[in-house]
Amino acid sequence: MTNGFGTRRSRREVLRTAAIAALGAAVAGACAAEEEAPGPGTRSGQAPRETFQQPRSKLSGELTILLWSHFIPSHDVWFDKFARAWGNRVGVKVSVDHIDLAQIPTRIAAEMQARQGHDLIQYIATLSQFEPSVLDQRDVVEEANSRWGEQLALCRKSSYNPATDKFYAYSPGWVPDPGNYRRSLWRSAGMADGPRTWDDLLTGAAEIKRSQQIPLGLGMSQEIDSNMVLRALMWSYGASEQDENEQVVINSPETVAAVEYMTRLYKQAMTPEIFSWNAASNNQGLVAGKLSYIVNSISAWRTAQESNPAVADDTFFVPALRGPKDALAAQHVLYNWIIPQHAKGVDAAKEFLLHYTANFASASFQSKLYDLPAWSKLTPELPNWLASDPFGAQPADKLKLLNEAIPWSTNIGHPGPASTAIGEVFSTFVIPNMFAKAARGDATPEQAVAEADRQIKAIFDKWRAAGLVGG
Amino acid sequence: MATTAEQPTTRPIAAARRRLADRDGVLSWAFVVPSVVYIVALVGLPFGLAIAFAFSDVSAGDPSYDFVGLRNFRRVVDDPVFWRSVGNTFVFTLISMALIVLLGKVLANILVADFRGKWVVRFLVLLPWTTPVALSSISWLWLLDSIYSPIDWVLRQFGALGPVENMYWLGQPGLSMTSVIAVHVWRLTPLAAVIMMAGLMSIPKEIDEAARVDGAGYWRRMFEITIPLVLPVAAIAALFGAIFTFTDMAVVRVLTRGGPNDSTQVLASWAFYRGIDGGDVAQGAVIALFLFPLLLAAAVLILRAVRKIEVR
Predict the structure, then answer these.
(1) B71 vs B256: CA distance, rounded Å
(2) Signal peptide location in the record (chain A) (predicted)?
(3) So where are chain A's domains?
(4) CATH number assigned to the domain covering A62-175+333-400
(5) Contact A166, A131 (CB under 8 A)
(6) In what helix (H) or strand (E) does residue A271 lie, and over which residues does it extend?
(7) A156 and A146 Cβ atoms separated by less than 8 Å
(8) Which are the contacts of B34, defined by CB distance < 8 A and separation ≥ 6?
(9) Domains and CATH numbers, chain B
């Protein structure tokens, strides 16, 4: 066998070299993996002191928790220790399982059907579709309100069903969904401070794609980020799936106008990749420097800080874009903690939720300011952290605009609640499919909206008949 | 004494055992019962449960049972995505099967040939079948990625794509269905090849040699001897492949999640999306039940064809 330098090598030598190379790659990979996840506070900043309050009743037994693998891995390292430490202190054996976020609804469905599984389950969007099989957490919410003031409205609306007067979930935190843009690209399009309106987005992104061949990245796929950003566009155009009284109102001129806008935006500024995206695709595109603008939390940028610092330093944020009627974005993540009816450690689950909420400042800090609280009183340091990022933002005040994120953020189902029907519309991706149909030319905007209207009405009728939707 | 005392008791037992072992009826039941239990527990019960769910309002969030008649069936057939899934299931299965049988036969011919390193080749050929589908599909997900696709890179090197062009394999309906079929064919072809290899090896060499002596060329021997004799085995490979393909949702789930815009949705994946992701277990059960008559018809047709070929 001849190598690249013209000398002959035996098969044994080739295999040995390959083995050494593979071992080296594995070691290098392991080192790289270690480098990717530095602990919070390693660069600057002081992690908040954790608090502890005795549970309201004597606890014992076990508590099993299922939650997502956080986009910021350091959060999970902290959470697991935090949960176990609490368990040791109150006499409860706590075990925590993390799984990929896309698998959580499937896992919940399986556990509900089997009537056994975890005592406490967390997801990053509304779990209203599981309302009949979960416990009412009114007592936990009322206790939290009595301790820390009124819960943030968007968190309440994403965990409470007014038709049944039930808190199907407990929502102690959320994550805003700002626009992430590459300043160097947008400067060349004459908008160094990024787009402020949907019209700006169309003009600037089209110019960037034309002149620099870098597209815009707003998903129209069957995944969670597409669900969020397309609703933001609808609200900004004055459209919505339902009204305040939970009546389906999607078939409106405003929705048609939003769909027409997105069709133009796709044709002028995007590529077909956005139809195949999963929840991580826009993150990957931004980190790779292949997208000029995405709508996402700060996780893509945090990843870039480690893996592509040049892109991270060039990435800036803008609030929800203004449309003809409004400027609203969906919450990017809305934590829903549910306690299934089959749960055995109910008291422990409720006490743990209160303990976790009391320490939400730690959750915010350990998630590198990804998680924001439903009770602002709990994180007095948050405005300072956002104004001067403890985790190495360049410039340090890059996240300052998130201090003002509440007015331009709202819940899935806006202007109504995140009901069971809204949960199913969300999880069956009716809205992304509606936009995709029109953008691809498979249907006119009017036809796409009419089809979505038919699907949403069928879902609402079903849940209304079951008494879970009002109106 | 002990020996003499034992003899009268052990003899009748041994004799009784012999009598039991000689009774065909008992033996046949003993052999059949495990299979029957297995089929009833893992096929019959879930099938019965699916029928029961199809007439209920059971949802992911509410497992309580209420009879609702044919309401779920009406909703399912009124849904255009269901009909698209039915069409896609046929397209997916028919094209996949044609390619799997064809490529399986070609591969089987290579595998029966005698050459150095044939065991390594056989091992490599079987790898796609032995690799867990989730793992292999994720590798394909990377190969077909919209930004980092190595396939696009190769096409770019050959000038088939511009410097900033991409194919967007999973972003366009035609290409995404092609990708799903290609990955499925890649995965199932080794199984078909191994089945056909067994068929090829069972053909007596004398027949082939006699044909050679009579002056038959390669293609004549292929079409008049090899293919007719392998046909029953090929039909079995097709039956297995068709059933695997009809019921498969793993490739769709991992590669496209039914997208773009439900254009790669097949019955199995749509049943899962409606039933589990969408939380409507009853509708999911209805959609899954539509697989049953299709699979039954496919199985009956292929088995009849096999019998006809054997009789001939």
Answers:
(1) 30
(2) 1-32
(3) 62-175+333-400, 179-330+409-465
(4) 3.40.190.10
(5) yes
(6) none
(7) no
(8) none
(9) 1-54 (no CATH), 78-311 (1.10.3720.10)
ipTM above 0.85 for this complex: no
- Measured CA to CA in angstroms, residue A106 lies from A71, B77, B171 at distances of 19, 24, 25
| DSSP, res A102 | G
Question: Whole-prediction pTM value?
Answer: 0.83
Query: CA A463 to CA A205: how far, in whole Å?
Result: 41
Note whether B277 contacts A433, CB cutoff 8 Å: no
Give 3-state DSSP helix, strand, coil % of chain A, rounded to 5.
Answer: 50, 10, 40
**Alpha-carbon distances of B246 from B99, B100, B281, rounded to whole Å:** 15, 14, 20
Buried/exposed code over A406-442 (b: 16+ C-beta within 10 A; e: otherwise):
bebbbbbbbbbbbbbbbbbbbbbbbbbbbbbbbbbeb
| Type of residue numbered A107 | R
Q: Specify the CATH superfamily of domain A179-330+409-465.
A: Periplasmic binding protein-like II (3.40.190.10)
Integer angstrom CA distances of residue B311 from B305, B307, B308: 10, 6, 5
Taking contacts as CB-CB distances below 8 angstroms, the residues of chain B near A212 are none
CA distance A388 to chain B (A): 34
Tokens of A457: 């009405």
Owner of token pair 């809305």: A334
Per residue in A377-389, pLDDT (tens digit) is 999 999 999 999 9
B63/chain A closest Cα distance in angstroms: 6
- Residue B195 amino acid letter: I
State the Cα–Cα distance between residues B211 and B201, nearest whole angstrom: 17
Taking only the tens place, the pLDDT of each residue in A336-358 is 999 999 999 999 999 999 999 99
Measured between alpha carbons, how far is A62 from B50 in angstroms, rounded to an integer?
A: 34
A·B CB contacts under 8 A: 113
